[in-house]
Amino acid sequence: MDNIEVEIRNNLYEFYDCVAHNGGIYSEKQDCWSVIKNVPKVWPRIIYRINTEIVEQKSSIIFSEKVKSGSYPELLISEDENIQQIDPFFRTLGFYPFSAWKGMAIRNMGDIVTSQLPETVQIVRCENSDDIEQWIQIVTSELITPVQFDKVLLENLIDQSGVEVYLLKYNGKGVSTMLVFSSETSTGLYFIATQKSAQRQGFAKLLVQQILSQNARKSKLPVILHATKTGEALYSKLGFLPFNQFFLYRYINANL
Amino acid sequence: MSRQQIFDGIEAIAKKIFGDGTIITEETTSADIEKWDSMNHVILIATIEKEFVVTFDIMEIIGITKFGDFVDLIEKKQDQCK
């Protein structure tokens, strides 16, 4: 397997671990999967880091019992290298696939082209309460509704080394968001969103370009992200290449 | 089962999930229906699979963006069974 695929995967998992740690959210690591527990209105329950061994009898029994006991996730993330093997097993437990993320990366930071910021646009690191509130409002409405991104969690993340939270402002008002999570071996871009009224005007592209340029000046590490189908075209234009794929499942009651 | 019959079956399921007043065409997408969020998307897929006694491959599910895609997939699976 290409190392970049490992990086794309590990950055995501380390980011979840970081969220759990800094949110005071209980997380659990079994042999074949990891879980961040559900905290209503703060963070959805997510199962990730799933190994193919989950379908083996001993592991599947433990996993099945966990699901049946009501301790099921709202979101489950599995990678393409094991998906065909695991998909039927998930379905028997009531998980259905509904979307996918493409793991994308830029390895050669020397190729980054940066546009000049227009005078009306400003990119700030979120540190004051007003910027944080605007960031939360955009991420909540565009990405994670009905869950509200928890302010205390975000403030805790901002205090961590390796986490940077950005807001792009147009005429002084926040319109695009991003969270940068740097592990020892890669830089991950998360929560890239643009307020509905400001979409299709190039703000997200501008924000990603500026952060890439900034990253290129201080690091040679690859930059990775996990793109939805709609975001994939934009990131391709910025130089990101597609690698692995992550499939997202939701749990539903089997008795429809 | 004709294409119209498949669509009618899907329309009935959509009304059950999204509400009686829901009007759909084959071109209707999730953006056109307020209640079509990720949870209802999953319920829609699972209900269609159950009612039409078909199983969609994971790659097929990822590619679904509008109601017409469901009709195409079910037609394809019918043809494969002939």
Helix content of chain A: 25-40%
Mean pLDDT of chain A: 89
The coarse overall form of chain B would be globular
Q: In whole angstroms, how far apart are the ends of chain B?
A: 12 Å
Q: What letter string, H or E per element, gives the SSE order of chain A?
A: HEEEHEHEEHHEEEHEHE
Silhouette of chain A? globular
The N- and C-terminal alpha carbons of chain A lie at a distance of: 40 Å
Tell me how many strands of chain A there are.
Answer: 11
Helix content of chain B: 55-70%
Biggest sheet strand order of chain A reads 1-2-3-4-11-5-10-9-8-7-6
Tell me about the largest β-sheet of chain A. Answer: 11 strands, mixed
Mean pLDDT of chain B: 92
List low-confidence stretches of chain A: none
- Helix/sheet category of chain A: alpha+beta
The DSSP helix count of chain B reads 4
**Which parts of chain B are unreliable, with pLDDT below 50 for 5 consecutive residues or more?**
none
In CATH, the topology of chain B is named Non-ribosomal Peptide Synthetase Peptidyl Carrier Protein, Chain A
Oligomeric state, counting identical vs distinct chains: heterodimer
